[in-house]
Design goal:
The complex is a heterodimer of chains A (about 240) and B (about 160). Chain A is α+β, with helices and mostly antiparallel strands and about 240 residues long. Chain A has helices spanning about 20-25, 80-95, 100-110, 130-135, 170-175, 195, 230-245, and strands spanning about 1-5, 10-15, 50, 60, 75, 145, 150-155. In chain A, strands 2-1-5-3-4 form a 5-stranded mixed beta sheet, sandwiched between helices. In chain A, strands 6-7 form a two-stranded antiparallel sheet. The longest helix of chain A is centred in the middle third of the chain and has 17 residues, at about 80-95. Chain B has about 160 residues and is α+β, with helices and mostly antiparallel strands. Chain B is built from 7 helices and 4 strands. In chain B, helix 1 crosses helix 3 (about 40-50). Classes of the chains: A alpha+beta (about 240), B alpha+beta (about 160). The interface between A and B is medium-sized, with 14 and 12 residues.
Chain lengths: ~240, ~160
């Protein structure tokens, strides 16, 4: 058994576990997007970032690919982590604003605007479909091609692959191209309907029940729950107030 | 150009059918055909037992490989920071005008391919242009014509 600390909590982990698996085992929530059980860890979406170590030497690492070490000090919801996650969500949102999965994440983490050029590429290159095809479906029909800003996922030569059996696994697992967000489009890019509507599709944690209460901002519990009759504008105002505070 | 299976196979046999020699094999094929024909990659995939998508991934990752036929002469214009400051964009534009192709494309007669590169590491002699491995230092718009003429004469 390996002993380590997550959010001040002494935990024990089996050898070979990752930080994410350990946190899950203890019921600590770490948001993920490109991680799915049954598929290999990729560390592409950077949503599962956690802070490792203490003081000025603390570094950010993706918990889905980081194996546990003896005496490791992990913090899953520090200000730095939350802010980095917000930035990642904002970047992904600019790539695929139609994805409900990403819109939900934006609402959950209070991302209310996108400062980047919206590109509507419908792909965030999380690689889930590539891994699904190779690892679960036993095919090697799609994969990454090109490099840098031209990187894309496609079949060889962009024609129908001989290996593809049209199982649809890639579409099933895709967080960007399948689920269209039902919220308002184009106007603001970020719909944030989940922030202003009641009942909402997000979970709210009572501040007192929150695991992270003493540790730092976990993002969900700090935010006030908007009142029932609140219109969108008022919710925006209260958020601004929160920011100023 | 027809792709001959025997030729491709001989490229592979040279490396003992080793999967790790993929890049070397692709280089040999590129040497032979001046680009990577689709059928050739299919043959490599079947012979080596590597999924086609992985081979295509490698072939598209490296700039050295091309999936489209290249011209007989390869013109590479450096547009790195140092060359950029010394006027590389103008030189590239001049090449584009003279050859009547955009960067990254091949002329209609298959003579020249025009490409850009980010930095060649010889910034002191910039702006640099390479044609078929010959380096031209401190090029200017005026020299473009001479460079092209020199290589047009050397028809293979």
């Amino acid at each position: 058994m390996i002993n380590l600390k997550i959010n001040g909590l002494e935990v024990k982990a089996e050898e070979g576990w990752t930080i994410l698996e350990t946190a899950k085992f203890y019921g600590l929530e770490i948001p993920t997007l490109c991680y799915k059980e049954g598929l290999s860890a990729y560390g592409g979406c950077r949503l599962c970032l956690v802070e490792i170590g203490e003081g000025p030497k603390a570094k950010l690492a993706s918990s889905c690919t980081y194996p546990v070490e003896e005496g490791l000090v992990v913090r899953t919801d520090t200000r730095r982590v939350i802010e980095t996650r917000r930035m990642m969500i904002e970047l992904m949102l600019s790539l695929a604003p139609n994805s409900k999965t990403i819109q939900d994440l934006a609402s959950k983490f209070g991302v209310t605007k996108v400062r980047f050029k919206v590109r509507n590429e419908e792909c965030i290159l999380c690689g889930l479909c590539v891994r699904m095809c190779a690892e679960q479906m036993g095919g090697r029909a799609i994969g990454f091609q090109n490099r840098g800003h031209k990187r894309k996922i496609s079949t060889p030569f962009d024609i129908k692959s001989e290996e593809c059996r049209l199982c649809g696994g890639c579409m099933y697992i895709c967080p960007a191209c399948q689920l269209k967000c039902q919220g308002p489009e184009a106007d603001t890019t970020v719909c944030n309907a989940c922030l202003t509507m009641d009942p909402t599709c997000l979970d709210y944690y009572d501040e007192l029940q929150c695991w992270m209460y003493n540790v730092g901002r976990c993002g969900t519990c700090v935010r006030e729950k908007p009142e029932k009759s609140d219109s969108k504008e008022q919710a925006q105002k209260s958020k601004e107030k929160q920011k100023n505070a | 150009m027809e792709v001959e299976e025997l030729k491709i196979k001989s490229c592979i046999t040279k490396y003992n059918y080793e999967k790790k020699a993929l890049i070397s094999i692709l280089q040999d094929i590129q040497e032979e055909y001046n680009y990577l024909p689709q059928e050739a990659l299919n043959i490599v995939s079947k012979t080596l037992g590597i999924p086609l998508i992985d081979i295509v991934g490698v072939a598209t990752f490296y700039r050295a490989f091309s999936l489209e036929p290249r011209g007989k002469h390869l013109v590479t214009v450096c547009v790195g920071t140092a060359c950029h400051i010394r006027g590389a964009p103008n030189i590239l534009e001049e090449f584009e005008r003279k050859l009547n192709v955009k960067a990254g494309k091949t002329t209609g007669d298959g003579q020249f391919s025009l490409e850009t590169v980010a930095c060649l590491g010889c910034c002191a002699i910039g702006p640099v242009v390479i044609v078929d491995g010959n380096y031209y230092a401190q090029t200017s718009i005026r020299k473009v014509d001479a460079i092209l003429k020199k290589h047009r004469k050397k028809k293979k």
